[in-house]
């Protein structure tokens, strides 16, 4: 009556990939989830869509919220507006307008200068200097050297202290990997953000053309198949699960019978690393960064390139020489107290999280599968575990799954609903979200290992 245009949500539910009625509905959550929702709301001033999808795994969500709250709001080396601006820089590298929008609001809320939002060149030189590290961490962390660290710590009046740099590195890696989660789970924009609402009235059939462009084609179609998936005969999907369980059983028996030699293990790692270069998204179209997001970083053409491309030889990163447990953890905890502890807990929860189920099967030991996923991601980053048989990866991860993993971890902005639907077709959505938690934490740890090793080399 007053002629005020009322925004309507564009999508349905917190994710474009998961039907709304299969997510956990606010108001129907249990006591644990209710506490987490309250915490998230108190911390962020909203109950965001990331939380509404992550809550499939309350134990992980609790650790994630605690860590993020500490990084953004508790005492630390960096001022609050710097923290949100670094979040914007990191998310923008993957064109993640969802996270950029949230942090633009938070940046302004804590008193950040609106001029900085016109482009990175308007931010202080100190933050501009972080651009190179942001770019390499996001796309090719194996190229980071102690010289890059030295440039940041020794640039006269715009220099970073070691503690500030550790804080910045943890924030950058946190938001790069959170961009992976956002795209990997098809997180919908918040209603108050760009792309989250429309002013069109509801159409006759209850969904409008904007829903179709968001991959939503009406309730009937989405529920036509097991997990909102590409229609597939249920026997075919069940066979897929059975075959995977059978392979796990056979590999366990082989492990018990004989162990490969160190030389053979090294050869298998190199083979898997080479093969991972040939795994690429079939929908590998260039996604152009929108001006709105790309102004927050420099060198927009710089992106992911495989670890050992075009005869470039980057030495393998051996975990035996520098690991999170023995080296990274203590360095972070020394320079930014308590953060090492929080990150360590989050890594452990993601890596060890299990409900001992696989699709419709119960009492399953999934540790072999979780380790294969984690080590495959580290393998793509050139990180090798001497005690792991990389031959297991090809046995357990099929091609469509590898395409999904590599896309979400390396070029998350290219993830599509088709990729999400095409792997593990009989599995629950909660299990696919679980996969994304593994991808997020393995990626974050890989980036951190390269950055922290370079900082350690600089210090020594």
From TrEMBL:
GO CC annotations, alphabetized = cytoplasm; nucleus
Q: Could you state one GO biological process linked to this protein?
A: cellular response to leucine starvation
Q: Which UniProt keywords apply?
A: Cytoplasm, Oxidoreductase
Give the source's domain of life in one word: Eukaryota
Name the predominant localization.
Answer: cytoplasm
What Gene Ontology molecular-function terms does this entry list? L-leucine binding; oxidoreductase activity, acting on peroxide as acceptor
Location(s) in or outside the cell = Cytoplasm
Check the record and name the Gene3D superfamilies matching this protein: AhpD-like
InterPro entries, from UniProt? Answer: AhpD-like (IPR029032), Sestrin (IPR006730)
Give me the reactions it catalyses: a hydroperoxide + L-cysteinyl-[protein] = S-hydroxy-L-cysteinyl-[protein] + an alcohol
Member of which family? Belongs to the sestrin family.
The name this protein carries in UniProt is SESN1 protein
Per UniProt, what is the name of the gene that codes for the protein in this document?
Sesn1
